[in-house]
Amino acid sequence: MRKTCDVGLLYVKRAESYRSIREEEVNKMIEYSISKHCSLSSPGVAPVDLTEKSKARKDISRIGWFLPKGGVNAGAITMEWAMAQDEVRTWIGNKGKVSETDIDQLQYLKMIVKETLRLHPPAPLLLPRETISHVTINGYEIKPKTMLQVNIWAIGQDPRSWKDLEEFIPERFLDNSINLKGQHFELLPFGSGRRACPAIHMGTTIVELGLANLLYSFEWK
C-alpha cells in the first residue's frame, strides 16, 4: 500500500502534475477570505466572527502548523514576516497571485518554513520503529525487536547542532544545504530513509504556496 501511494500519488513527478489543482484551491481560499473581508465594510453588514464558524481548529488550513508560536520574540517575528512579505511582493509584482513556479525564488520564505519546522515539527516523535537485528550505537546494546522512537523535537533543540536554539532565526539556514528531505540528521521533521513521510514534497509545496499567497494578498498585524 505504501509503495502504491508513494509511486501513484505522492511521487515527486506525480505530485507536480497536481500543480493546477493545488493552485486552484489556494486561490479559492484567498478569494473567499478577501470577499469576507470586503463584506465587513458594506453598509448594514455586521462583522462576523469566523472563528465561531469552525470550532474544530484542526480543520483550519495546515499552514497553521508552520506559523511561529509562543516563546519567540514578537518584535523579531514582525520584522521577519515583513521581510518575507517584501520578498514575495517584490518577486510577484502585479501578477495577482503566487504560482508554484515562483516558490523556488522565495528563499527567505523557505527559510521561515524550515525554522518553524525545527521549533515546531508536525509531531514530536516519529512513528515507532523496531530493530531487525542486534546493533550497538554509541556504546548502547540494542536487542532485536526493540521498539525505538525518534524524538525529532529534541533533535531540533540539540545545542550541538543549533546556536540560540530557542530563538526563531530563519537566517540560520542562509548559505547552507540543510533541507527537509531527511538527508540532514539535524533536521528531520518528516523522518528519513525508506520510512520517511512519502508526502514531503507535496506537503511542503502546499504550505509554501499557501503561505506565499497569504503574504502577498493581505497585510498582517
Detailed description of the structure:
The protein has 221 residues and is mostly helical. The chain has a single domain (4-37, 73-217), classed as Cytochrome p450. The protein contains eight helices and four strands, in the order ααααααββββαα. A two-stranded antiparallel ribbon has the order 1-4. It has a two-stranded antiparallel sheet with strand order 2-3. This is Cytochrome P450.
Strand content: under 5%
CATH architecture: Orthogonal Bundle
* Overall pLDDT confidence: 78
Q: Which sequence of SSEs, written as H and E, runs from N to C? A: HHHHHHEEEEHH
List low-pLDDT spans.
50-72
Instruction: Indicate the overall shape.
Output: elongated
Alpha plus pi helix count = 8
Reported for the largest beta sheet, the result is: 2 strands, antiparallel
**CATH-derived topology:** Cytochrome p450
* Strand order, largest beta sheet: 1-4
* Terminal residue distance: 44 Å
**How many structural units, i.e. domains?**
1
Any idea what the CATH superfamily is called? Cytochrome P450
Percent of residues in helices: 40-55%
Family: Belongs to the cytochrome P450 family.
Binding site for heme: 197
Subcellular location: Membrane
Organism: Cannabis sativa (Hemp)
Question: What's the short version?
Answer:
By secondary structure, the chain is mainly alpha-helical.
